Design the sequence.
């Protein structure tokens, strides 16, 4: 956890989800957004999950990113217990490659929304959390806008390389990225 007041909670049902959620942590660091990281299992530590979700807003959190695989109940259960926006990250599973997790997170009943990103795409969850915070933080909004400009410029730079080198040399040099 950062030393300043966390604004984003990044939680997971198991430490095996941490490699997936690392991308959300990296985005928070990149944008200098204070965050906390915790293992909060909906099934193995339900009381901890309930306490975390119910107290998140009183502890200063503004957004929760919840990653889960398999049954993936964590994002939905947390969303049912907190007034904060929850972003669900479906974690790829061994047998169903995360499709089970995706369906579990995205199929929330009316009244309890969970924003859901693509399977394993914690980077987008981190970016969405940053964008939510940026709606009330002009400095952060400027960083988001610069990030978007940098993304656009990287595509244009790649096109310039492609034009100059031709596709075969480009592939030999850069591969597919």
Sequence:
């Amino acid at each position: 956890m950062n030393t300043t007041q966390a604004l984003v909670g990044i939680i997971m049902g198991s430490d095996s989800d941490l490699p997936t959620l690392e991308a959300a942590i990296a985005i928070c660091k990149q944008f200098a957004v204070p965050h906390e990281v915790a293992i909060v299992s909906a099934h193995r530590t339900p009381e901890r999950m309930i306490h975390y979700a119910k107290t998140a807003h009183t502890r200063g959190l503004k957004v929760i990113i919840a990653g889960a695989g398999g049954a993936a109940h964590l994002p939905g259960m947390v969303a049912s217990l907190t007034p904060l926006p929850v972003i669900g990250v479906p974690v790829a599973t061994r047998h169903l490659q995360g499709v089970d997790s995706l369906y579990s997170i995205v199929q929330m009943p009316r009244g309890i929304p969970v924003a859901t990103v693509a399977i394993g795409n914690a980077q987008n969850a981190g970016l969405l959390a940053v964008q939510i915070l940026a709606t009330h933080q002009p400095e952060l909004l400027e960083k988001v806008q610069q990030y978007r400009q940098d993304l656009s410029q990287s595509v244009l730079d790649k096109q310039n390389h492609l034009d100059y080198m031709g596709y075969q040399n480009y592939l030999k040099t850069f591969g597919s990225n």
